[in-house]
Amino acid sequence: MQIIRISDIHHPRFGEVWHLYQNSFPLCEQRTLDHQITAFKADRFHLDVYLDGETLVGFIGYWDFDDYLYIEHYAINSDLRGGGWGSRILEALQKTAGKTIILEIDEVVDEISTRRLRFYQRLGFVVNPYIHPLHRYRDIETEHQNARLVIMTYPGTIDPQTYERFNRDLGEIVMKRDEQLQTNTK
């Protein structure tokens, strides 16, 4: 498995990664292309793409803060799901992170959300007790607009102060849509 980092929309693999991104997340959880360009300007944002030969396996878009990594988006090529790639990619990140990893999943309300929870639990992620709202990327009406998310962390739970810092970083840095993003993240 090869890992490449994409740092702008002009990278030759960006188009296929963007296509996977758009097909993997509900519209309210997707950045616009302009918002993605803004994220690329932030020193803390990384888009790591995983390849098997020339085949796109998946990607992780994450933010590297001082004492934690926040996985913003993570997707596996739909043709390769169920083949163990998702676990291998997350395990590789876990080995190199050297700090707490935070991610969000939908509330566990059905078979799909239950499978997602169990997938992350098998990889050592744990559920945290915080009630966490969905931070929307777009101001559109959806069934997700009042959703509550589950915060999962690796290798253990986070304390309330870390959660509050994460939630603030999410609102003030990750979700920023303007040129201030780069200067706010240093």
Can you tell me about this structure?
It is a single chain. The protein is α+β, with helices and mostly antiparallel strands and 186 residues long. The chain has a single domain (2-184), classed as Gcn5-related N-acetyltransferase (GNAT) (Aminopeptidase, 3-Layer(aba) Sandwich), CATH 3.40.630. It is 34% helix and 27% strand. It has helices at residues 14-24, 33-40, 85-97, 111-122, 160-174, 180-184, and strands at 2-6, 45-52, 55-64, 68-76, 100-106, 126-127, 132-133, 148-154. Strands 1, 2, 3, 4, 5, 6, 7 and 8 form an eight-stranded mixed β-sheet that branches. It is globular and about 40 Å long. It comes from Alistipes indistinctus YIT 12060.
Return the structural class. Answer: alpha+beta
Describe the main β-sheet briefly: 8 strands, mixed
Return residue spans where pLDDT drops below 50 for at least 5 consecutive residues.
179-186
Q: Total helix count?
A: 6
Report the principal-axis shape: globular
| Mean of all residue-level pLDDT scores | 90
Superfamily at the CATH H level? Gcn5-related N-acetyltransferase (GNAT)
Percent range for helical residues?
25-40%
Estimated share of beta-strand residues = 25-35%
* Helix and strand pattern: EHHEEEHEHEEEHH
How many domains would you count in the coordinates?
1
**CATH third-tier fold name:** Aminopeptidase
What assembly state would you assign to the polypeptide chains in this entry?
Answer: single chain
Distance between the termini: 31 Å
Count the beta strands: 8
Q: Please compute the radius of gyration using only Cα atoms.
A: 16 Å
CATH architecture: 3-Layer(aba) Sandwich
CATH class: Alpha Beta
Pfam families: Acetyltransf_1
Organism: Alistipes indistinctus YIT 12060
InterPro entries: Acyl_CoA_acyltransferase (IPR016181), GNAT_dom (IPR000182)
Protein name: N-acetyltransferase domain-containing protein
